[in-house]
Specification:
124 residues; alpha/beta; 2,3-Dihydroxybiphenyl 1,2-Dioxygenase, domain 1; 4-stranded mixed beta sheet; Glyas_Fos-R_dOase_dom; VOC_core
Length: 124
């Protein structure tokens, strides 16, 4: 099965708030948008980040609409401490302060305006 592109699609109440947050703080850029929809790309992420407004009649299957409990959007970075300092300085809500796990994962988590948890990781 050849895969030609990859996307992560998230249901949120306020598409504009999440898209603006990801653009400002994570370096994504809007590729296309419409009422209740935004598709963002990042030159290094390898996938598009898509936001769909919760309640869109076109969302299929309807039973999957709403927040996905336990979902983490994770990006590996080269300098976790610099990113942590930068994002705190930008006023990003930190959900979990920087920690290092015994298996070598150094990470922190942030919350976007719709409550989506993003995690940055550096392997040490």
């Amino acid at each position: 099965m050849p895969i030609t592109a990859t996307a992560l699609s998230l249901n949120v109440d306020d598409v504009t708030a999440s898209a603006t947050w990801a653009t400002r703080h994570l370096g994504f850029a809007e590729e296309m948008s419409a009422d209740g929809f935004a598709s963002l790309a990042h030159p290094e992420a390898g996938f598009n980040l898509i936001y769909l407004r919760t309640g869109l009649s076109t969302f299929q299957p309807p039973s999957a609409a709403g927040h996905a409990d336990g979902l983490l959007v994770v990006f590996v970075v080269d300098d976790i401490d610099a990113e942590y300092a930068r994002l705190r300085g930008e006023g990003v809500e930190i959900a979990t302060p920087i920690e290092t796990e015994s298996w070598g994962e150094r990470y922190f988590q942030m919350r976007d305006p719709n409550g989506v948890i993003f995690q940055l990781v550096q392997w040490v």
